[in-house]
């Protein structure tokens, strides 16, 4: 197992048991053994401070906080931390361009955003739509092993436009711009990926998808654990295909 994979294994253990300090302290030892003394010490200090606060020893806890500040750790790792790690995130937003270099993305997560290992949902940044070749890296990312809620809905932007009528009256009306984040080809690739077994909630609204996308979902051998499928809004289905989707997944699942 290479060094990056070892980091990921430790982070998985930490967020599999987020209330247990032992995996955090073992990870701190590993960091120190691999030349990351400051990060190791930061985790240990934060774990110690949390224990003192839980014991009601506010003076000793404040002394530890002073040590964090004196050593510059709170400037180096700016933001809120819980026992050396960022607070747990429920979901994270994927930027498609990062999936072009998966190893670099994995390294960035380990260094800058380890709490993604606790996420159960993912979104897609609307200005960077997914492509079919992104699906396999998405499932393969170690931080995504918990992800079961896939929000792949397109982005809808509302804007008020003003025009002048023939009688000279100024009229305002609401316009909607849709920015899809997936194509039919992406849905087809997703539906045929064995990792789709993990998905319990899938949002594909507002992507201007056609019947082929719906058929791909219906024919998928892996989407058996879906409890919610949001599909109808903002897509273009014709004929019986919508009924086939409802028959495949159940009327209580499909929206």
Keywords:
255 residues; alpha/beta; five-stranded parallel sheet; 10 helices; elongated
Task: Describe the structure in your own words.
The chain is an alpha/beta fold and 255 residues long. Among the domains are: 19-87, no CATH class; 148-249, no CATH class. Helix content is 41%, strand content 15%. The chain has 10 helices and 7 strands. The protein has helices spanning 3-16, 22-33, 37-54, 58-70, 73-76, 102-112, 135-140, 184-191, 211-219, 241-249, and strands spanning 91-94, 121-124, 149-151, 155-164, 170-179, 201-203, 228-230. It has a 5-stranded parallel beta sheet with strand order 1-2-3-6-7, with no helix packed on it. The protein has a two-stranded antiparallel ribbon with strand order 4-5. The protein starts with a helix and ends in a 6-residue tail after the last helix.
Number of helices: 10
Q: Main sheet, how many strands, which sense, barrel?
A: 5 strands, parallel
Q: Quaternary state, please?
A: single chain
Arithmetic mean pLDDT: 90
- Alpha-beta classification: alpha/beta
Order of helices and strands: HHHHHEHEHEEEHEHEH
Beta fraction: 5-15%
Strand order of the largest sheet: 1-2-3-6-7
- Flag low-confidence runs: none
CA radius of gyration: 23 Å
Number of strands: 7
Kindly state the percentage of residues in helix.
40-55%
Distance, first to last CA = 43 Å
Overall outline: elongated
What's the helix and strand layout?
Layout: H1 3-16, H2 22-33, H3 37-54, H4 58-70, H5 73-76, E1 91-94, H6 102-112, E2 121-124, H7 135-140, E3 149-151, E4 155-164, E5 170-179, H8 184-191, E6 201-203, H9 211-219, E7 228-230, H10 241-249
